[in-house]
Amino acid sequence: MSMSPKAESVAEDGELDGFVPEPSWAAEVIPGGYTRIEISLPSDRIEAVHRDLVAQLEGPLRILYVQLTDRLAGKQLDPPRRFVALDVPHEVMGDALTKYRALIYHDGRHQLWIQGRGEDKVILEETGVMYAYPDDPCFRDVLAAHGVPGTKRETMADRDYVRVNFMAECDAMEGQFRQSIGAVSYN
């Protein structure tokens, strides 16, 4: 199975424009006074950094899988379908991330929110941009260990035109992934 990036920057005509995100992170304060870290990486580095960030969360984990696109029906979902799983052990989540890596790290039909026991969470968006909440030294340490510099650079979320990629091979994986972590519909 050939792996595509979750998303690619394109020109207005839909042709690739050559933009590849550089490794970077930036601290942000969002409405309500909450802090987070915005993380941008090239496609081939997302999985390793994501898994190490998730490892920092205190288990058991709470998972929100947000299906944005139904590829088989050929449409964006409005509103998206949401699936939740509670009390997921790190080992179960790690196994699912490994087994369904094509879906999680290379297909842009969804967002994956993984939260620890408190308010700490790691969000992987459909564009490949990640957010870690709150801005915590443990997350910064992971980024430093991966050589990701703490400078704000342009991310896929900043681009005017982005093509989100879907892989037909991931159609069956979507339900299998949710089942493997015990996720149920939450709409």
What can you tell me about this protein's structure?
The protein has 187 residues and is α+β, with helices and mostly antiparallel strands. Helix content is 24%, strand content 32%. The protein contains 5 helices and 10 strands; from the N terminus they run βββαββααβββαβαβ. The strands form 2 sheets. Strands 2-3-8-7-6-4-5-10 form an 8-stranded antiparallel sheet. Strands 1-9 form a two-stranded antiparallel ribbon. β4 (61-70) and β5 form a beta hairpin.
Contiguous low-pLDDT stretches (5 residues minimum) are none
Biggest β-sheet: strands ordered side by side in the sheet: 2-3-8-7-6-4-5-10
Shape: globular
The tally of structural domains comes to 1
Mind describing the biggest β-sheet? 8 strands, antiparallel
The count of β-strands is 10
Total of helices: 5
> Helix coverage percent of residues?
10-25%
Mean pLDDT: 96
| H and E string | EEEHEEHHEEEHEHE
Strand % is 25-35%
- C-alpha Rg (nearest Å): 16 Å
Summary of the model, kept short:
The chain has helices spanning 46-54, 90-99, 101-106, 137-145, 171-181; strands at residues 7-9, 24-30, 34-40, 61-70, 75-88, 110-115, 121-124, 130-133, 162-164, 184-185. The protein is of the alpha+beta class.
